[in-house]
Amino acid sequence: MSTQLSHLGNDEADATARLMSASERLMAEAARLFPLAAAQSERTIWLEAMIDEVPDYLYFKDLSCRFVVANRAITADNGRESLVGLSDFELHPEATARHFFNTEQEIIRTGRPMLDMEDQIRDAAGNLKWMLSSKLPVRNGNGEVIGIVGTARDITERKLAESLHRGQADLLKMIALGEPLTDVFSALILLIEAHVPDVTGSILRLSPDGRHIVNGAAPNLDAGYCRLIEGLEIGPTVGSCGTAMWRGEPVIVADIETDPLWADFRHLALGIASRACWSWPIRSYQGRVLGTFALYSRETGEPSAECTKLVGMATHIAGIAIERKEAEDSIQYMAHHDTLTGLPNRSMLDERVASAIEAADDRGGSMTLAFIDLDNFKLVNDSLGHHAGDELLKIVAARMQGCIRASDSIVRLGGDEFVILISGAMRRGEAVEDRLRSVREAVAEPVEIDGRSFQVTCSMGVAVYPEHGRNVSELLARADMAMYRAKEIGRDAVQVFTFELADRAHEKLERQEELRRALAQTEFFLQYQPQMDLVTGRIFAVEALIRWRHPERGIVSPGEFIPLAEETGLIGPIGDWTLRTACRQNKAWQLSGLPPIVVSVNVSARQFQERDWVERVAAALEESGLEARYLELELTESLIMEDVQQAVETMHRLEQLGVHLAIDDFGTGYSSLSSLKRFPVGRLKIDRSFVQDLPGDSDDAAIATAVISLGHLLQLRVIAEGVETREQLDFLREAGCDEIQGYHISRPIDAMALQALLCLSEC
Ligand SMILES: Nc1nc2c(ncn2[C@@H]2O[C@H](COP(=O)(O)O[C@H]3[C@@H](O)[C@H](n4cnc5c(=O)[nH]c(N)nc54)O[C@@H]3COP(=O)(O)O)[C@@H](O)[C@H]2O)c(=O)[nH]1
């Protein structure tokens, strides 16, 4: 056979040359093996015999595309004795044959080979096969094309593996893109059905309670059958799937008709002409059973090893899909719910308020937001610990949820803050306060945590759409504002928002800003009010009293700004400033040669409760160089009574520093005599209110006398404040009071004036 390839391109010439040289080598090999077969006819016989041994298809066709030579592989696969003289039209369906014919005619017409073509054919046994084929022109000695030579190789397995890979990749992509689980399941089942002949797949899931069958997908299984098995309780003999889920292991039923596992359900399966059902559990990464992947077959029997391997892949992918969906669902849940109480959270509130507003607009109606804050929750947290605080929140949340109507929602904003959304208008004659009463009452029911029983109340602020705000943040801010007002008026109350409230809050905010500025720009200063020993007549101490030199309002008294400073937390830095300034001033008086006196500084509750308060007192003393015995801290009765245990501890630490402690405003609080005994204080200060009507008011006279006696019984010194008259002084001296403070001696004065006063009395 001679070859003329000069007219072909390089690649094509190479391929053709390879094929031709392979034939030549084949012939040379035949000549080497059979040197004695010299005659051409004999050589042809040997050559054909050799060609028949090749497992790939090898053939030669003439110009009309009829087989001239065809090896055994192609002949047998076509179910023939010989293909010589036949065309593809006699072997394949019309469309396939036409495709082959057109390709081959093109090769003959152009003289160009066609290499590595992939074609799908059906063999004589009816099996679909994928073939990789190359076809090349064959020329005679004159270079004329006289036919084609073709080779083809069965690549069905490789194609199946490729399609399986592609299918898996597509499935993983679907999972990654979060496509619906039923779509992923259906694609998975179709993939397996495409690779396992004559089976119908199904995926079932296990219900969240771990007890019931839930349909996943079964694109080719009878829908009526699927409906009938939905919700069945899994168990030791519940067909293949119910049993596989129950056992957590594959259940291969080769014959549904006889297998006892199907006793109660075989009529269902036989109704859809299924004779075998093989079910494998789908598991989570940690091994939890999530569902089953099952294959139904019309024939009795067991799955092949290949099928079992494929299903292994399928259950793995189904497990990933379900776990991902569960993770997605739980992320969604967490994004919209509070983990502690299980109530919806702020993001859910936004959505619900938006749709409640929409509904109100549609009906021309309204909706209401109630902002709820537990009263003194911090106290529970601080005194009983965070565990108790968390428990309380859970209990209260459940109680509130139990009180609201199905159409309303309750949300935890965070901490001890909740919001109730009341959709729609109130009923005729019903006020919002009535609607919220049951919630307040439920909250106020006694709570028992860790063996301790106590009660909490709550304060509520209400804002109504559309009167009080147009959107969720406006409504929430206004309900919050109203809630603060409810706290201000004594807690355990409901306050509906009003625009006057908003003005007040705005004003407050402005004053708060002014306070900040005052601190930054040192607009504060101290005045000092002398305290006199009634026996010696000596000024032995002064009380430091803060003042604010406001740029527009002039001197502002502490009674006006201390409560706001306490509320906003600014009392911390303001109190520090007072303490440091008073210590520095006292030291300065000492350094100026005056006899040492004690400076008394007021301490607010919030300051006193700060964790590092004692350290801050120590720092003020150290910084000023003042000895601790020349500093007295005035604590009010009510401050101490907020948390007696804690207060006594802090007082002892202060006592260890060496500072004096006094109880201010004595008589206005509720200190019990037993607790008073435990306070390491040196002085009681009779409140001004009991002094101002002395000596005329017999009640006040009795109280003042009693406080003096009580103080002395406890070995405390007693000072009376607000002494304005000689008569008051005389009465107090007569009653045994040790010391006095008041306008009668001196109004609060600045440091220079006090220095002069001290100098006058001492020098
Ligand atoms: N936490 C802090 N509280 C402080 C500080 N400085 C003052 N205060 C507290 O503010 C309240 C008002 O104080 P103020 O306007 O300074 O009034 C004090 C005296 O001026 C007033 N006083 C004294 N003598 C008389 C008198 O004869 N008549 C009369 N009508 N008033 C008099 O009494 C106030 C002192 O009270 P007290 O502290 O209870 O001794 C007041 O509660 C201050 O405590 C501060 O720096 N921090």
UniProtKB/TrEMBL annotation:
<dbReference type="GO" id="GO:0071732">
    <property type="term" value="P:cellular response to nitric oxide"/>
</dbReference>
<dbReference type="InterPro" id="IPR012226">
    <property type="entry name" value="Diguanyl_cyclase/Pdiesterase"/>
</dbReference>
<dbReference type="InterPro" id="IPR029016">
    <property type="entry name" value="GAF-like_dom_sf"/>
</dbReference>
<dbReference type="InterPro" id="IPR000160">
    <property type="entry name" value="GGDEF_dom"/>
</dbReference>
<feature type="domain" description="GGDEF">
    <location>
        <begin position="365"/>
        <end position="499"/>
    </location>
</feature>
<dbReference type="InterPro" id="IPR029787">
    <property type="entry name" value="Nucleotide_cyclase"/>
</dbReference>
<dbReference type="InterPro" id="IPR000700">
    <property type="entry name" value="PAS-assoc_C"/>
</dbReference>
<dbReference type="InterPro" id="IPR000014">
    <property type="entry name" value="PAS"/>
</dbReference>
<dbReference type="InterPro" id="IPR043128">
    <property type="entry name" value="Rev_trsase/Diguanyl_cyclase"/>
</dbReference>
<dbReference type="InterPro" id="IPR035919">
    <property type="entry name" value="EAL_sf"/>
</dbReference>
<dbReference type="Pfam" id="PF00990">
    <property type="entry name" value="GGDEF"/>
</dbReference>
<dbReference type="Pfam" id="PF00563">
    <property type="entry name" value="EAL"/>
</dbReference>
<feature type="domain" description="PAC">
    <location>
        <begin position="115"/>
        <end position="167"/>
    </location>
</feature>
<dbReference type="InterPro" id="IPR001633">
    <property type="entry name" value="EAL_dom"/>
</dbReference>
<dbReference type="InterPro" id="IPR035965">
    <property type="entry name" value="PAS-like_dom_sf"/>
</dbReference>
<protein>
    <submittedName>
        <fullName>EAL domain-containing protein</fullName>
    </submittedName>
</protein>
<feature type="domain" description="EAL">
    <location>
        <begin position="508"/>
        <end position="762"/>
    </location>
</feature>
<dbReference type="GO" id="GO:0071111">
    <property type="term" value="F:cyclic-guanylate-specific phosphodiesterase activity"/>
</dbReference>
<dbReference type="Pfam" id="PF13185">
    <property type="entry name" value="GAF_2"/>
</dbReference>
<dbReference type="InterPro" id="IPR013656">
    <property type="entry name" value="PAS_4"/>
</dbReference>
<dbReference type="Pfam" id="PF08448">
    <property type="entry name" value="PAS_4"/>
</dbReference>
<dbReference type="InterPro" id="IPR003018">
    <property type="entry name" value="GAF"/>
</dbReference>
<dbReference type="InterPro" id="IPR052155">
    <property type="entry name" value="Biofilm_reg_signaling"/>
</dbReference>
<dbReference type="InterPro" id="IPR001610">
    <property type="entry name" value="PAC"/>
</dbReference>
